[in-house]
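task queued by scheduler; priority normal; single chain, no ligands, no partner chains; default sampling; output format set to structure tokens
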Amino acid sequence: MVTNMTSHPLVQVMWTEFVSCEALCSSSQASRNRMLTALQYAPEERPIVAQLFGSKPHQFRESAMLLRDLGFDGIDINMGCPEKNVNKQGSGAALILDPPNAMVGFYDAIVRACQEAGLPVSVKTRIGFHYIDYHDWINRILDTEPEALTIHGRTRDEMSAVPAHWDVIGDIVHLVKDKRQSTCVVIGNVKKQTIGHELVVVITIDIYVAVPRAT
């Protein structure tokens, strides 16, 4: 789908496709240029958030500073991508596998990096890797006070092959509301506007419409 901000006047925030922190920090100019090309945006697309994936805190820090200089309005950390080549790098949904290490050694460092760059941070993730398991590490994420938490209501192994687990999403929404500092964005089976309105009423989610950027 090719679109832009002007064709969707109700869009409030734009996100980029995810880009690799490792490539952004690479000594290879060709690798860096590929990522910088992917991050190009038009002024009318602002406010715009850059979505990053990676596994090394220092690379997120360097990337955050670069994104600040490029004029981005925020950073979104991808902890939900199910692709094998991304997970093999310890990135995307693989960060779910070892919550204490991911949250203490990784995510806290990312928050500090974003704070140093003066950018707000959000997180996109799933409800588990092999199976549904989210209480401990979702709370760890929320303890870092992200601007927003985006939940894909399926595990990594489920990909998008099963219906979203709305009961689990509802529980996570309550966790977010209890913390009272983050917006909750939900991904999963909202194919009609009427369904979205029903979900707002039933589990009090905060819904945003995600629209791909032009490439």
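post-processing summary
- The beta strands are 14-20, 48-53, 74-79, 121-126, 148-152, 183-187.
- The radius of gyration is 17 Å.
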